[in-house]
Amino acid sequence: MMIAPAPGRIPGARRTTCEPNSAENAMRQKAEMIETVTRTPAGELKSPSLSNLLQHPLSFRLLSLVLVLSAWELAGRVPISPTFPTFLETLSATLEMIGEGSLQSALLVTVVPLVIGVAVSAVIGVLIGVVMGLDTRAEWLGVPVFIVLQAAPLAALIPLLVLAYGIGLATKVLIVCIMAMPVIVLNSFKAIRHAPVSLVDMGRAFLGTRRQLIAKIILPSAAPVIFAGLRLGTAAGFVGAILAELLVTPTGIGDIITYNQSIAEYPRMYGAIATVIVLSVCCVESLEWAERRFFRPEKRGQA
Hints:
By secondary structure, the protein is mostly helical. 77% of the residues lie in helices and 0% in strands.
């Protein structure tokens, strides 16, 4: 006697159990692999964020700063010289000057010729460098002049500047320009001259005008080197501003340095010098941030 199959069931088909979802299996396996990788031999979980933090470029900068300040403190405690204070003594003297207000007022005096000189050097220097990079005749005329200005010892030129322009603001601004402008001009010139030839040829192939080639190909490709020149020029401008106050008239930070040196208040003297260095570093880092933010969007995520 034949038995009829149950309704809805195909003869010969095997009954199978419902398998778990493949997506759930994949997620479970991935979680197990992550747990296996992040566990130490002792069975404790290791935070992946700590490893990323240690590999961050800012961590190495902080480590370098800690090492330099520790070496400064150690050298002052040895001491390597009776005139070399420790870092803690310098920090305490700097905070005292800030509390008195003398450091802020001196910085305001120093910043005036510095800002004017660096701004003039940046605008005129970049313009001259771009013109020399685009025109061979301007290169022949200008490059030797700025190479001589960059190589000439500034201390030998300061008496001539004082004789010609006196001891006022104009002399200090001119000293800052002489220090900052050559490096800005030469970097801008090299940046324009070494623009990618293939991109320029491609622009010409698409019938781009000279103005379009300069605005859309040459200047954007030259921006990193131009900004490098601006950072170097800003640092050189700080050197020129302090030299002007030390060698022309003792005002601003230069007055604090010379006065405290004469009365053997070396922590205050080093505090003024360290303040100028910190201010210079902040300005250079600000220029680098502006470059990443506005001119190099591909590097915005980097430190």
